[in-house]
């Protein structure tokens, strides 16, 4: 803010007045908490799609939380959910814990219309609108391109009958991750033993994550129902999702070894469903800049019959889904990219067994205080043994190096069990 004074035809700044006004403005600042934050409602949120099959239907129920709350999830437990058709059929969707409800394997009549019927433990009742079954066409291709200092992943699809027009995608990513050190040893609580590297290695793991953004495309303005290279997700060059390119002396990485995979799931939408998701995307992802769209009210297709004025968040569709998987190999990742790892603070310590020093002075067994928790005589500082320390003259082990579990044990961040769908190479 600038303050200008006009005097005898001369325009000039007044530093004193400028400072006074700045102090006044700062002194008048007051935190504003809108009514929605001060007294937030607790509204039902319904997520999921009625799967026409073959397969299971998964529905998530939760309640909205205060924006200032430290809780990010408020699951709704012990609800009763039924899938109902306009032809009188019904199918239960029992609870599976943490607000998740999963049906049995089923194949629905695709000529019928379907809705959800929800009854919560406090006897509030909700219905979604009846919706038709929309069949997703096959996914033509999932591809990637190295660009803008990262990897852009795309999906392509088409419907030769020109009936789909509105598309939505979700995805699940899985990638290889490594720790800072490769552990060749482990402790059973009493002593340090060789690690079974075939069944109990903890250097290389796999981690998975699901999409959290809304990805849509429409061919409604085109003569043909074709979606070509719709962007799905972008992986930055330093991301740990590209950790598979990391080399380590104990596991030799080959260029053709896979580092990352993505499973893309495709949904076909009705026009109403597409407009709901498009508005939700505008309100949640396309905001923050001065020229971005302003938030608007979003109405789903789920209603409370207990209290017709109660807002309910969510939109229920019914349909079949199609999927396609892409693998990215180490050789596809530029070798000059530097991986951003969380291990900069990791260090490795040398810990020794009992040893007779000069004058028959016995050194304390450091391994018992760091590795062997059943034998420690002092408060343990938990570490995992990594490499052996050998006497250069006799070749016998006189101790082990060790580091903190986070720096050594990848199972703290993922699983060391190879996923069923994983391919080690693209051959």
Shape label: elongated
Would you tell me the structural class of the helices and strands?
mainly beta
Largest sheet: 16 strands, mixed
The percent of residues in helical segments reads under 10%
* Cα-atom radius of gyration: 30 Å
State the separation between the terminal residues, measured CA to CA: 64 Å
Share of residues in strands: 35-45%
Number of strands: 28
Put simply, the count of helices is: 5
InterPro entries: DUF4249
Pfam family, one: DUF4249
Protein name: DUF4249 domain-containing protein
SSE topology:
Blueprint: E1 4-7, E2 10-13, H1 15-28, H2 35-38, E3 44-51, E4 58-63, E5 80-85, E6 90-92, E7 95-97, E8 100-102, E9 113-119, E10 125-128, E11 131-135, E12 139-147, E13 150-158, E14 166-178, E15 185-187, E16 192-194, E17 204-210, E18 215-218, E19 226-236, E20 258-268, H3 271-284, E21 302-304, E22 312-313, E23 317-329, E24 349-352, E25 355-356, E26 362-363, H4 366-370, E27 384-390, E28 397-403, H5 405-408
Parallel strand pairs: 3-22, 3-23, 11-23
Antiparallel strand pairs: 1-2, 3-4, 4-8, 5-6, 5-9, 7-8, 9-10, 9-11, 10-21, 12-13, 13-19, 14-17, 14-18, 14-20, 15-16, 20-23, 24-28, 25-26, 27-28
Question: Which descriptors apply to this entry?
Answer:
427 residues, mainly beta, 16-stranded mixed beta sheet, DUF4249 domain-containing protein, 3-stranded antiparallel beta sheet, single chain, disordered N terminus
């Amino acid at each position: 803010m600038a303050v200008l004074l006009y005097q005898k035809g001369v325009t000039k700044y007044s530093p004193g007045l400028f400072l006074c006004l700045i102090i006044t403005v700062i002194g008048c600042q007051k935190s504003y908490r809108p009514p929605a934050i001060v007294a937030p409602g607790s509204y039902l949120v319904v997520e999921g799609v009625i799967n026409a099959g073959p397969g299971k239907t998964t529905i998530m129920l939760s309640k909205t939380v205060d924006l200032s709350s430290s809780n990010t999830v408020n699951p709704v437990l012990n609800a009763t959910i039924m899938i109902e058709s306009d032809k009188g059929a019904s199918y239960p969707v029992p609870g599976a814990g943490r607000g998740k409800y999963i049906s049995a394997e089923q194949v629905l009549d695709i000529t019928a219309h379907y809705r959800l019927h929800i009854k919560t433990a406090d006897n509030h009742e909700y219905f979604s609108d009846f919706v038709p079954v929309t069949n997703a066409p096959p996914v033509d291709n999932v591809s990637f391109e190295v660009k803008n200092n990262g990897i852009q992943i795309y999906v392509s699809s088409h419907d030769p009958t020109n009936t789909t027009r509105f598309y939505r995608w979700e995805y699940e990513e899985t990638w290889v991750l490594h720790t800072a050190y490769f552990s060749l040893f482990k402790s059973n609580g009493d002593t340090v033993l060789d690690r079974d590297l075939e069944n109990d290695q903890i250097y290389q793991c796999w981690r998975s994550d699901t999409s959290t953004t809304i990805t849509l495309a429409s061919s409604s303005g085109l003569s043909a129902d074709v979606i070509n290279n719709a962007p799905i997700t972008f992986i930055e060059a330093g991301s740990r999702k590209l950790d598979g390119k990391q080399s380590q002396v104990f596991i030799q990485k080959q260029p053709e070894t896979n580092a990352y995979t993505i499973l893309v799931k495709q949904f076909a939408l009705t026009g109403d469903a597409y407009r709901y998701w498009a508005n939700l995307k505008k309100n949640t992802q396309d905001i923050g800049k001065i020229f971005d769209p302003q938030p608007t009210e979003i109405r789903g297709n789920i209603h409370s019959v207990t209290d017709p004025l109660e807002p309910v968040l969510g939109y229920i569709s019914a349909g079949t889904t199609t999927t396609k998987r892409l693998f990215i190999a180490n050789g596809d990742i530029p070798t000059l990219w530097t991986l951003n790892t969380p291990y900069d603070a990791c260090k490795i310590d040398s810990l020794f067994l009992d040893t007779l020093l000069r004058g028959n002075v016995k050194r304390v067994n450091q391994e018992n205080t760091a590795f062997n928790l059943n034998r420690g005589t002092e408060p343990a500082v938990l570490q995992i043994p990594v490499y052996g320390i050998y006497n250069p003259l006799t070749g016998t082990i006189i101790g082990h190096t060790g580091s903190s579990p986070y720096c050594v044990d990848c199972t703290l961040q993922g699983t060391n069990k190879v996923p069923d769908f994983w391919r080690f190479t693209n051959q």
